[in-house]
Amino acid sequence: MNKSWKTALLMVALLFSGILAACNSSTGGSGSVSVGIVLPTRDEPRWVQDEQRFKEALEDSEYTTEILFSQGSSAREKENVETLINRGIDVLIITPQDGDAAGAAVETAKKEGITVISYDRLITNTDAVDYYVTFDSVSVGAAQGQYLIDQTGGTGIPLYLYAGAASDNNAFLFFEGAWSVLQPKIADGTFVIANSSEAEALKDSAELTRDQMSRILGQVTTNWDPNEAINKAQTHLTAVGPDLKGDVAVLAPNDGTARAIADVFASDGEVSSYIVTGQDAEKASIQYIIDGKQSMTVFKDVRTLVTDAISIAIDILDGNTPETTGSYDNGAKEVEAKQTDVIVVNQNNVKQELIDSEYYEASEFTGLE
């Protein structure tokens, strides 16, 4: 091969490697990254939506970001944080897969002088968290519980309780909020707990300790997994008699599990009707709500949450002090927080809240009036 051919091949190789380097960054080109973002999984629509909105939020700024997914693994999460540290990030935005396990990862980042923002889920039992951006998780659960109360009547209504993953601090906050409004109605006989002996034993306790909630979650956790939710719901319905069927109320923690649980209850001939809660306003659940297969969802406008997280990140990068609206005790410190309001969506207001607000397009659904 002559020298001119060698030179040409070398130029092509250099050009190709440059293209690859440019493709590795989520926004901007190769080089150091301003804001590193770690999200829990690509397998839930919620987090894929967040990924896109994070990219859009920084499009017109001078700052760059790289977004990595942990795919349900705390070990992968730690590797992602280390990768971003090596990319030279100044701010880390992270949704922990496991609130406790994420502590080691963010402590590594903190030692490098990186500001840590816990996003949507709180990282617990470490002082290496600077800010927490969140929806008011207790009010989410309270809204779900209140909806069940408002949509049912009479006494002795079978109540099926389900919860998120015990590794997720939000699951406890959601359940705490739901219990705060449901418990008086359980104690007075409006509802009869159908699927948790631990909850039944505590029905006269207005407030639950973390350990008490852990025991209940141990019986009713879905781990945020629709397949696990299906198995739990099938097991629970098989275990009870007709007296705990008929017209029922179901506390489901999020939309993915709500659809799964709704399908199981709808297929049981002894269940006359069901009211089932949800959370996240996923497209599939909005269609379920339109079709009457899911009763409600708690709409958490991730556009606002993403904007809040990016605003804090930019304030830090610009050398300013971010504004906060409250704080949360993570077991090691009071973490300064920015809270975002939530909205209950059902058939009556789905168009107003989700279509008119341009969160979704009407063409994405059928049967919408």
3D structure, described in words:
By secondary structure, the chain is α/β, with parallel strands linked by helices. The chain folds into two domains: 30-129 and 302-340, Rossmann fold, CATH 3.40.50.2300; 137-300 and 345-364, 3-Layer(aba) Sandwich (Rossmann fold), CATH 3.40.50.2300. The protein is 44% helix and 17% strand. It is built from 13 helices and 13 strands. Strands 2-1-3-4-5-12-11 form a seven-stranded mixed beta sheet, sandwiched between helices. It has a four-stranded parallel beta sheet with strand order 7-6-8-9, sandwiched between helices. Helix 2 (45-58) links the parallel strand 1 and strand 2. Helix 5 packs parallel to helix 6 (169-187). The radius of gyration is 23 Å and the shape is globular. The chain starts with a helix and ends in a 14-residue tail after the last helix. The model is unreliable at 9-25 (pLDDT under 50).
Give structural attributes.
369 residues; alpha/beta; Rossmann fold; 2 domains; 7-stranded mixed beta sheet; 4-stranded parallel beta sheet; signal; transport; Peripla_BP_I; SBP_2_dom; sugar transport
Fold blueprint:
Elements: H1 3-23, E1 35-39, H2 45-58, E2 65-69, H3 74-86, E3 91-94, H4 102-111, E4 115-119, E5 131-135, H5 137-150, E6 157-161, H6 169-187, E7 191-193, H7 197-201, H8 210-220, H9 226-239, E8 246-251, H10 255-266, E9 271-276, H11 283-290, E10 297-299, H12 302-317, E11 326-329, E12 334-340, E13 343-345, H13 350-355
Parallel strand pairs: 1-2, 1-3, 3-4, 4-5, 5-12, 6-7, 6-8, 8-9
Antiparallel strand pairs: 10-13, 11-12
Subcellular location: Cell envelope
Pfam family, one: Peripla_BP_4
InterPro entries: Bact_Solute-Bind_Prot2, Peripla_BP_I, SBP_2_dom
